[in-house]
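Weekly puzzle thread! Below is a chain. First person to post its structure in token form gets bragging rights.
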Amino acid sequence: MAVLPMKKALICGLKRNRKRTLEYLQRQDVLEVSTEIADDRIFRKMDVLSSKAVFERNSADAEQAIGVLQSYVPEKKGLLASFKGREPLPLKTYEELAGRHNEIMKKAGRLLQLARSVGEKRGTIPRLEQQLQELEPWKTFDLPLNFKGTRKTAAFIGSLPRQISLEDLSRELTEACGCPAEVSIVSSSKEQTCFFAVCGKNDREEVEKGLRALGFVKAPQTSGIPADRQRRLEEELQSLRAEIEADENEIRSMASDREELKFVADYYAMRAEKYGVLNSLAQSRNVFLITGYVPEDRAAKLERDLEEKCGVFVEFSDPSEDEDVPVVLHNNKFVEPVEGIVESYSLPGKGELDPSAVMAGFYYLLFGLMLSDAAYGLIMVFGCLYCFKKCPHMEEGLKKTLKMFMYSGTSTTFWGFMFGSFFGDAVNVIATTFFHCPDISLPPLWFEPVDLPMKMLVFSFCFGIVHLFTGLGVKLYCSVKSGHLADGIYDVVFWYMLVGGAIVYMLTMSMFTNMLGLGFTLPPAAGTVAAAVAAVGFVGIVLTSGRESKNWGKRLLKGLYGAYGITSYLSDILSYSRLLALGLATSVISTVFNKMGSMLGDSIPGAILFILVFVIGHALNLAINAMGAYVHTNRLQFVEFFGKFYEGGGRKFNPFGEHTKYFKVEED
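Winning reply:
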């Protein structure tokens, strides 16, 4: 249970060694770079944001190129693809590929160019197809559709939005314009009638008004005979489709470049991050300075390697009290998985205890109590072990999370056997339904919560009291360690006396013990002693809760308000009834699915139904209740447990490193 002590680093070197130093630091991932400048009269910051923007754009282009390949040649990924993490890349291979980054970027550019070309051509096809469709009714017409007439005549080429005969069209047009016009129909359908009309040039305006009154729509204004135009459009469409196919084939042929594109996306992302650090470095004409924070256990190796490999001077010192030092948690393999839970709440503040070790055991036990099915626990354990075996390069954060679920699964298995739950009552249901052996079952090693819910409720409350009192104990430990023994007595010991005394006193009341089904009652003498202890605790809380006030009246009022906090302890203890609720929910839902699956009895359809209901039902039950156990276990830690001693407020250690997506460079 420790927060790693940090050292403040000062790295000084000649500018010619700057690139080598930054690249080494980035691969080591141990230094959080500070942006402060030691002396702004000598040192200045270098503005390289424009170069950083170029690298970010190149990385984004490479990612887009990978996306293009993915859309045409999807990369085959297994079920565990999201667990595999970044592939290790030897430093020698990294340097070889880095020397070809321009060549690889040309491939990315070509992919993007091909994708744009395909997109543009695909966008052109609907427009050409629409033109073809518009020309279809005019394919037998032997004049250009933009023909306006001769020197003495005016021509009108278009359509009416309805079907009409030649006689009716001629008559309606004559009635509408009042002057003669020669009409011929080109094509006719239910939706429209395409026609060609000719009149004298002097009658042009009248005929045009008459046609407009009938709903005349001009034909597409294209030059050339429609049939010729259609043929050219079809040839253009055929050519476009052939070009699209050629471009797509070229894209598919570049699938072998996918890994290089992934590299160059990471390469430019790393360079962008390096230039972000470079932008904040203190530099003079010939010298550069890097300051930051390093975990103490990595300082000696970093100093030795930087001086030997990069030719720079390194000095470490202890941070001052007023510095905002980042936090790194360091625990053993059993505790390490819950560090992410602590971090999601808040990292320890300056001088504060890391609560990971104290909460780890409680976390696993609480999770197991809420899920409490041996089969579900075994599935979680072996599922996590399988992921570890198949994904050796899993990211550290994900590995910790899976370990947390593995330990929680072990606890779930333990409580499942204690309560006699293995897929609920599946053992008895299978034995009774298919083997006609009702005497076969999995007996609980302790008791079945479904049969004795009050016993489980009492156990949940007792577990909760131990959990809460442990939190108070941590607060007492921290007070003693920091030299504030009196605060520990006032804020912890008096509460132990009040809450503990009140609990013991209630156990002397037969009404209370009978309600909980305890089967025993403490003697009255114990109640007298407990009442006295609780009274002393109450008086101590009233007198000390407002001790920061000088005025005795205010101090007394604050003390009474502090003693009112006994109600929060009552609500905290009641919160642990969720152990009963979630445990029963898992067991009861499992039992319901088992009963549903066995409805058709001992038969082939019955076996098929049982298998389907069993697999689907228990998969859903495991998923839903495991999520519920995770959420409510976190709540009990954050609200009930941390609320007794933990404040947090620390800042996470954010080292300069390889925040890449696909590869992780390894030192030779």
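Puzzle host: Confirmed. Bonus trivia for everyone else. Residues 374 and 413 are 4 Å apart (CA to CA).
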